[in-house]
Amino acid sequence: xxxxxxxxxxxxxxxxxxxxxxxxxxxxxxxxxxxxxxxxxxxxxxxxxxxxxxxxxxxxxxxxxxxxxxxxxxxxxxxxxxxxxxxxxxxxxxxxxxxxxxxxxxxxxxxxxxxxxxxxxxxxxxxxxxxxxxxxxxxxxxxxxxxxxxxxxxxxxxxxxxxxxxxxxxxxxxxxxxxxxxxxxxxxxxxxxxxxxxxxxxxxxxxxxxxxxxxxxxxxxxxxxxxxxxxxxxxxxxxxxxxxxxxxxxxxxxxxxxxxxxxxxxxxxxxxxxxxxxxxxxxxxxxxxxxxxxxxxxxxxxxxxxxxxxxxxxxxxxxxxxxxxxxxxxxxxxxxxxxxxxxxxxxxxxxxxxxxxxxxxxxxxxxxxxxxxxxxxxxxxxxxxxxxxxxxxxxxxxxxxxxxxxxxxxxxxxxxxxxxxxxxxxxxxxxxxxxxxxxxxxxxxxxxxxxxxxxxxxxxxxxxxxxxxxxxxxxxx
Amino acid sequence: xxxxxxxxxxxxxxxxxxxxxxxxxxxxxxxxxxxxxxxxxxxxxxxxxxxxxxxxxxxxxxxxxxxxxxxxxxxxxxxxxxxxxxxxxxxxxxxxxxxxxxxxxxxxxxxxxxxxxxxxxxxxxxxxxxxxxxxxxxxxxxxxxxxxxxxxxxxxxxxxxxxxxxxxxxxxxxxxxxxxxxxxxxxxxxxxxxxxxxxxxxxxxxxxxxxxxxxxxxxxxxxxxxxxxxxxxxxxxxxxxxxxxxxxxxxxxxxxxxxxxxxxxxxxxxxxxxxxxxxxxxxxxxxxxxxxxxxxxxxxxxxxxxxxxxxxxxxxxxxxxxxxxxxxxxxxxxxxxxxxxxxxxxxxxxxxx
Lengths: 477, 353
What we know:
The structure holds two protein chains of two kinds.
Chain A: H1 4-13, H2 15-37, H3 42-47, E1 77-81, E2 86-89, E3 94-104, E4 113-122, E5 128-134, E6 140-147, E7 159-161, E8 167-170, H4 175-189, H5 195-201, H6 203-207, E9 209-211, E10 217-219, E11 222-232, E12 238-246, H7 263-299, H8 301-315, H9 319-330, H10 334-345, H11 347-361, H12 364-372, H13 376-412, H14 423-432, H15 435-438, H16 441-469
Helix pairs in contact in A: 1-16, 2-7, 2-16, 4-5, 7-8, 7-10, 7-11, 7-13, 7-16, 8-11, 9-10, 11-13, 12-13, 13-14, 13-16, 14-16
Chain B: H1 8-36, H2 39-62, H3 66-84, H4 90-102, H5 121-155, H6 161-175, H7 178-192, H8 210-248, H9 251-258, H10 263-301, H11 306-315, H12 319-347
């Protein structure tokens, strides 16, 4: 390799380098965007907090599968509003009206219905909240009446409720809604069903359907207006967010797991983690491996013997059992995993670099440097290191996928860092919950493909670098 | 490798000794870690409590007086504490502990039992070891053969589409986690096509007829084997190909061709014969990975071997079992490695000078 530009053109010559470069840019951009946009405590605060995902459908495939299917599965929708559409003065008291519009265009009924209130603030007296739905056929269904109750009313300063944890009304199992719907059916369709019968049929069918002759319900498509009314005494009383959850059978871009967690978010967070583990491990073990290799080859004698024996022994240890052992004992903290991978990752490079240094040692430029009186340290750093540097770089890149794969294997065995979601951990959870036996492909396929994607990025780069580092492999021009 | 300078026995003795050092090194390291982190105290204490409970059940039938019983138990407990060495710091127990493990006195598992109901770790491991060896060895042999034949064949057409495909396949197989491929294979072949069973080694109940039993085993082993072959054969073929291409350009091969020897003879005697030892070296280097990889593959396929046992030990937080398994895994590796070294000597005449 004579000049840098020649090396660059040699690298750029191959197809693999181009694809590899494109992939690494993609990987880096996604990782940066994730780090900038997602909270760094995403793992502890959201991912491993089941309550945060409670509104989501469980184990649902991604929404885009509908484009491939004849019978469209109902999409999961959460419709919310944070400002009243209208405020009415009732003389002394007020009515604030929030409107949520739901476009129901499916041949299936929503799988569940949840109403959610977040951050309710009031001053003098607790407000009363009423919810009703106006259907496309202009029939009105009364859903909920909720007189806000509070222990220890605060008279001077604002009372704040449901701030950190929203109030949820699981309408699908609400007995007072069964009674209301029983009345609704009698009044609008002249059908007498007991509340128990309503409960058996399911509230979604009655709210979003028209009863048929045979006792079944046919979906009534169109726009549904959900009215949320707050009757309050103080004009400043407010609700931070009102929302209706229309349970679906498909969710988002990547679907959900059995806890209802949005897999898209978990998978996204895995990008910087994989990149960090891969690069940190390979950079550290390459530095140690190369330094020991250069010293071993150049200094020789007893130092050489000790380093080579140590490398030989560590190189011969079956890695995974020991990795499991140590992560089990020291806990699966991210840096513990990186540290252990580094401790066992250096010998291969040491052995190869040493043999390269041995042949460099007897070359003219090293002898010249010795003759001039350069110190050993200077010779190793200034004369020998630059000669082996390209090879070391290639090894660094080649070792990265191994680190990524090792971490995902550990995570899959349940030994990953519990505070940070990784692709391996998602697969671990999927496997433990029987995803392969239940056919939850969206839970197994993407994490694995992403592991392969990040690993193959570095494999391609290493393959592209090979002819640069090893000129014998260059194609004849 | 500077084998030729040393005698044959010396070579093997040298390899043997360094492998024993590996084994002892791993053992030493794990025992020190266990001692220094206080985990070994925990293991011993739980063993002690377990033993005490057994003794108590025996004594209850003999001694009726509660006070007397407690007194007797207390004195037995003190004896046990001394016997286990819990009255001394961990580093004083270390040699004894290492000796125990070396002699395969591995203690008993917390709540995992052998198929015959024993809690002795050595009994559990002995039952499972053959299953692991069966799976791993079969996979290595098949991959070795595929690598040897496909690799030398591809090497005869360098630069062709097949050759490029093999390079790509090798790159991908380097990046695919074998265990994930296993999950996908279960999803495709067991869940969607219903061709193979999900887990296990035999149907429940296993067939009694030997032939049917063998066929049942074959049916169960297909999917794990298929996974190991798809995931690993790529790199085998690629490495054999690279070695063969280099050898095929050597002068002695050209001489053989120039002499007019038939091509398949040149292939067999002049190329494969020379390449085989290098491929065996590759088997040796890949052995550690294959044995470790069994932990994941067996877990995915519910294969009742050492790997799955390891996973169960992790899930049930059984420190004693994990220590024992780490040692036995290294032991198995060291033994297998030594067998391969001997095999290497047989295959490569240069070592025998």
